[in-house]
Specification:
alpha/beta; TIM Barrel; 2 domains; nine-stranded parallel β-sheet; disordered N terminus
């Protein structure tokens, strides 16, 4: 049986200790992004290479009230055809709503048409990525690069907001700056305030800098400063939320309106159910091996609806590896999933380590 503490085994731990800023019970309110009322304020982030349609549907079935599709580059969206092999990028199903689509790019003139395609595909919120820190994004003047040029960033927000129908919200994802310089801090707040003035319904703030990438602690103190600065405007926090308890701790410590779970959801989609349990004063649900098998099987089945066998294998191999820390035989399961070269081999791992009725 897996215990609760092992749910985040091998995940990076926050490098700083945080004590609650507010004493007493934490009262969680629904999260509102424009006209989208989300019944619980802990949501799934856009995850490049992960938050495809199957992952989002699984998360929704396990308590996620809102998810965002993996980020799409504006040029790619504009060139995308509704072919069988590519339709998955713009796929939205009935059980997903509300669901967000996220855009990243360099040229403000290309964002509006790409945003319109996301609207036509059925996404309920259009999210603009000013946070991606990876080298390809930075080298292409996309994502977190825009935190160094507030004028361009705000032109993108303005163009997208003008293009998207008024009843559909536009949101923004940011990091706390390129680095920890005063110039970066000034640029951050210029973009934050300007985006809200231009009609952004919510802004997600990750507590690391672009320079940090995924190393070191996410500054929850900075998130608290941002929320105090923003007042009643909608701020969603991100960074160092690898357990359900850490999601509640972030809300208590920083005062943010919601929490966006990224890497913490990849191997543990139950994190949303667990957060709901804890918020209700109940023990967090711990998935046994039988439940893990059920969800892995569900995700594989969903993958077969949109991918060929080769893509199903590569997708489910990486998810099997990410799920493995929940299993009592973690190392053996991880290695077995990693070694599988066919879907039959993947299924054999499931049958050996996740037997029916276990």
């Amino acid at each position: 049986m897996t215990n609760a503490s092992s749910l985040v085994e091998n995940q990076p731990a926050p490098a700083q200790s945080r004590s609650p800023a507010i004493e007493g019970p934490l009262v969680l309110k629904p999260l509102r992004i424009g006209n989208c009322e989300i019944d619980f304020p802990i949501v799934q982030a856009a995850l490049s290479g992960y938050s495809d349609w199957p992952m989002r549907v699984v998360a929704r079935s396990l308590g996620a009230p809102y998810t965002i599709a993996e980020v799409l580059i504006d040029k790619f969206v504009l060139e995308l055809k509704q072919r069988h092999k590519t339709r998955r990028h713009l796929m939205v199903s009935d059980e997903e709503h509300p669901v967000g689509g996220q855009l990243m790019g360099s040229d403000p003139e290309q964002f509006p048409a790409a945003a319109r395609k996301l609207v036509e595909a059925g996404f309920d919120v259009i999210d603009i990525n000013f946070g991606c820190p990876v080298n390809t994004a930075m080298g292409g003047c996309r994502g977190g690069y825009h935190l160094s040029q507030p004028k361009i960033a705000l032109e993108i927000v303005a163009r997208v907001r003008d293009e998207v129908p008024p009843h559909l919200p536009v949101s923004v994802k940011m990091r706390r700056g390129i680095d920890d310089s005063e110039e970066s801090r000034s640029n951050f707040f210029q973009i934050l305030d300007g985006a809200f003035d231009l009609g952004a319904a919510a802004i997600t703030v990750h507590g690391r800098t672009v320079k940090q990438k995924y190393v070191g602690a996410s500054s929850w103190d900075f998130l608290r400063d941002v929320k105090q600065h923003a007042g009643d405007k909608m701020i969603i926090g991100s960074g160092d939320v690898f357990t359900a308890q850490s999601c509640l701790d972030m809300m208590r410590y920083t005062g943010v309106d919601g929490v966006s779970v990224a890497r913490g959801a990849i191997g543990n989609p139950w994190i949303f159910r667990q957060a709901r349990d804890l918020a209700a004063g109940q023990p967090a649900f711990v998935p046994d091996v039988s439940e893990q098998r059920r969800v892995l099987g569900m995700q594989r089945s969903l993958c077969t609806e949109i991918y060929d066998d080769r893509r199903v294998l590569s997708t489910m191999r990486k998810f099997g590896i990410k799920f493995a820390p929940l299993h009592p035989s973690y190392e053996q399961v991880r290695n077995a999933f990693a070694a599988g070269k066919t879907l039959d081999a993947w299924q054999a791992v499931l049958d050996e380590y996740y037997p029916i009725g276990s």
